[in-house]
Every structure is written in structure tokens, then in C-alpha cells.
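Pilot study result, target chain (166 residues):
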Amino acid sequence: MRKDGSYLLAPHAGVIAAKRCGAASSLLNSTLMSAPNPTPCVSVMYDGSCPLCLREIQFYQKMQPQHALHWVDVSAPAQSLPPGTTQAQLMQRFHVVTAKGELLDGARAFAHLWAQLPGWRVLAYLCRFPGVIALMEVGYSVFLRWRPALQRWVKRREQVTQQESS
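Predicted structure:
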């Protein structure tokens, strides 16, 4: 873990991400960490078994990102994960792997994703101001405590809606 709270994955993890995002073969022959012009691909790690998370990801997926995004449902049993991580760890919090191979989580991960999406870049810019990420992290931690109850509520609402429409 770095001083800023991010993790730097092994260089081969960046190459794997580059392969998934269709980077040039010259990049694949070197490590992502030493490449002068790394692929702009960001891998977004989300819990596809969470109805709230899935709705948010589907909303983001409809946008036209500045660069390629690789969407990774970490709840899928056969999904390959970044080295040094577990499925349980990745399902507990929102994560992204940057084009440079950094594993970000929580508020920093959201800010990084927003920087890739049109209409959200202003919010990502505001996250650069002192204290904003810390405040967002507090809010995200509160949400995570309520997430199981909110998931149950959303599932019940979806079931009711399906019953009413049939």
C-alpha cells in the first residue's frame, strides 16, 4: 500500500488489463509500469449480485467514456481478479484498476471512474480539493453499513413490481 492509500499491482497485472482493453501489441511486450504511453483503459470492479451496484454500473455503461473501460463483475465465480486480491475483498467495496495498474477503492475509485465519464468530469475535478475525498469516504462508509438493508429493500420492490406486471 502506498502512502496515499492506493495499491500498485504487479506490472503483469497492467499488461493483463491492457490485453483486455485491446492495447497495441508493443505495449503488451513491455510492462505497463515502464510504458511511456500506457493504455487509457480502466478496469471497473463491481458487485453484480448487488442490485444497487448493478443499477449504478448499468447507468455508467450507457455513457460514452473518454477511453475504454473494462467492466468486471467480481461476483461471477469464474472471473479473473487482480493479483493479491480476493473476491470477498473486491465485493465489499467499489474498486478500479487504473491504466497504470493502481488498485483504488471507495471514494478514490469513484472519482477515478467519474474522470473517465462525460458529464461527471466536473465532479471528479472537485474531488481534487482538500478534504473532498475524505468526506466522500465517510459518506461511502455510512452507505456500506446500510447496503445490506437497502439491497433487501430493492429486491423486495423488484419482486412486487414483477408480480404487479404479471
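One observation from the pilot: The chain has one domain: 7-165. A full batch analysis is planned for the follow-on phase.
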